[in-house]
Here is the input.
Amino acid sequence: MKAPKATPEVRLPWEISADEIAAILAGSHSNPFAILGVHKSGSAYVARCFIPGAEEVTAMALDGSVIGELKQQHPEGFFAGQVSLTKQQPVRYRARRGDAEWAVTDPYSFGPVLGPMDDYYVREGSHLRLFDKMGAHWIKHEGAQGIHFAVWAPNAQRVSVVGDFNGWDGRRHVMRFRSSAGIWEIFAPDVPTGVGYKFEIRGHDGVLLPLKADPFARRSELRPKTASVVAPELLQEWEDEAHLKHWSETDKRRQPISIYEVHAGSWQRRDDGTFLSWDELAARLIPYCVDMGFTHIEFLPITEHPYDPSWGYQTTGLYAPTARFGEPEGFARFVNGCHKVGIGVILDWVPAHFPTDEHGLGWFDGTALYEHADPRQGFHPDWNTAIYNFGRTEVVSYLINNALYWAEKFHLDGLRVDAVASMLYLDYSRKHGEWIPNEYGGNENLEAVRFLQNMNTRIYAEHPGVMTIAEESTSWPKVSQPVHEGGLGFGFKWNMGFMHDTLSYMRREPIHRKHHHNELTFGLLYAYSENFVLPLSHDEVVHGKGSLIAKMPGDDWQKFANLRAYYAFMWGYPGKKLLFMGQEFAQWAEWSEAKGLDWNLLQYRMHEGMRRLVRDLNFTYRSKPALHARDCEGDGFEWLIADDNENSVFAWIRKAPGEKPVAVICNLTPVYRENYTVRLPIEGRWREILNTDADIYGGSGKGNGGRVQAVNAGGSIAASITLPPLATIMLEPEI
Here is the structure.
């Protein structure tokens, strides 16, 4: 007897197979947009939705009119049914369970937000508005308000956005894949700003990865939490037109630039030891810098980072100001406040490497996406971090867009690019066999070179008032020369040689300095090979190096005298200036990111005297074009005395066209010298405009009574000068 034939499953036109329903419920369907939402079925339209917890679902148009009752297809919350629509359009559902009722606007009933041109520019690497397209943005779309999410994960099987708005359920908002660009996107209606979110990514091998923070997140949770936060668009009313106009129209090389380097978390703290907010910092730090005469504040990285002792240099959120000091709007208000009083803001920027925290960029879609897979290229042995793949178009575009983002959205005046040397050399901190040569067999990272050139070209083209500064410690040529001349295109470069040689000299006991005279003169051989910034940075006052005052030799009086003389030496030397916080008042202790500076020291005469000196140096430097207008050009400097190693005396002239010259004279021994002859270029009276041995600075009060007389004796103009011990003086002709 034959077995009866199986009765075929009979489905209504709007019903789908049990397998497809199961895939939707598991969050594993390859294209949920083809199933969920509104679709044409014959001459009618059907709606399908997945609403966990619902027992009944009514479909409505966005205007609230009922368009159909949906039938439960699975008890876990899958519903479907015919709806009275004449075209495909967004819909909303009224879900019920017992006495509970709630509304759900269907994300799968909306069309894509990104377009073909976005895909094209992303593939080409020429999209300069990625920060407006990627990440999370509140928008109005097809009659609804909500958040558009977009993330690059080309090798993922599936990407969902999860967050407070969907119970962190990866089945609820599975994203649409734009295969031509490798981008996943979804419009999530009714989601407000301020909610936390991450991306749930299933790798190419089907393995679910740890939840990932948004690479383009503009706000993050406060550590130790790691979620991204949907940020509203900045609504800052900028009042800095005059400031931006000034810097976009001037040659920065010929402007006075004196930078105060600040770690925002430890400049000052509240009484209870917690961080100041951006508004609190603005109320204290901005007036302080105005009073001190600094032209710029340079922040150690304020982008989001999980680990305080990294000082921000291991960032997991390049687009997000850290939550430690409040919301992004607070940082925008801070920058605006600086600009209103003429102070620029520079950000330490880290495009060289990133930490391997599991919520970060590492193995983002289950592959080495942002980094190289080969550790000889993709792992940094010094910092245990991953190195960006500068040969990948999308990675380069991500970084360049980030530089543009800070300049455009936050009106930043500059980016100090960290660890450039580690980017330029393939064998940086690597032994033989631990690195891969370039295509020509060399150790130059040609991809990183192209990235830096491209980044600088884009920045200066889009924001001519912005300056880029390289922290580069090698002799790589033309770092601060234009790209069209074969350079890297930076505006300035840190002069690490100046810092190293001069501090080496100043550490020595004065009696031994005569044997190391060249440590202060050698730098002039290359002082104009780049546009230099002279950096006394945070790196010199940590990790057992001691503070600047602690490096100086001698008893306390000599330590302070040495440091005062050194500061005036530096402010009189060609190059822009940078000083790390706390060193302006000679803090004894090494810097620690875990507490505020030792401001109580200002009650003591010697520390307050140092602060006054730095203040006067800044205003002298700014008010005397001879001291700044030719910082980067050799015709602004002339040695007067370079070979008196026996007395450890140095003297030179700083000059600028059409301006009074300034003579800088340094006596770097504790010997009080009277009737010391110094050749000067102009006959007549010269006024002493600065003397680091002045009583108000904590010195002994020795000097020249405010003036010296330069006389012409046999065709040679010279002055007989009193040189205070361990001091630098500056003279200006009274003409």
